[in-house]
Amino acid sequence: MMTYIVFILSVIFVVSFVGFSSKPSPIYGGLVLIVSGGVGCGIIMNFGGSFLGLMVFLIYLGGMLVVFGYTTAMATEQYPEVWVSNTTVMGVFLLGLLMEVMLVLYVLKSEEVGVVFKFSGVGDWAIYDTGDSGVFSEGIMGVAALYSYGAWVVIVTGWSLFVGVLVILEVTRGD
Amino acid sequence: MNPLIFTTILMTVLLGTMIVMMSSHWLMIWIGFEMNLLAIIPILMKKYNPRTMEASTKYFLTQATASMLLMMAIIINLMHSGQWTITKVFNPTASIIMTSALAMKLGLTPFHFWVPEVTQGISLTSGLILLTWQKLAPMSILYQISPSINLNILLTMAVLSILVGGWGGLNQTQLRKIMAYSSIAHMGWMTAVLVYSPTLTMLNMLIYIMMTLTMFMLFIHSSSTTTLSLSHTWNKTPLTTTLILITLLSMGGLPPLSGFMPKWMIIQELTKNSSIILPTLMAIMALLNLYFYMRLTYSTSLTMFPSTNNMKMKWQFETKRITLLPPLIVMSSLLLPLTPMLSILD
Question: Could you give the ipTM of this predicted complex?
Answer without folding.
Answer: 0.87
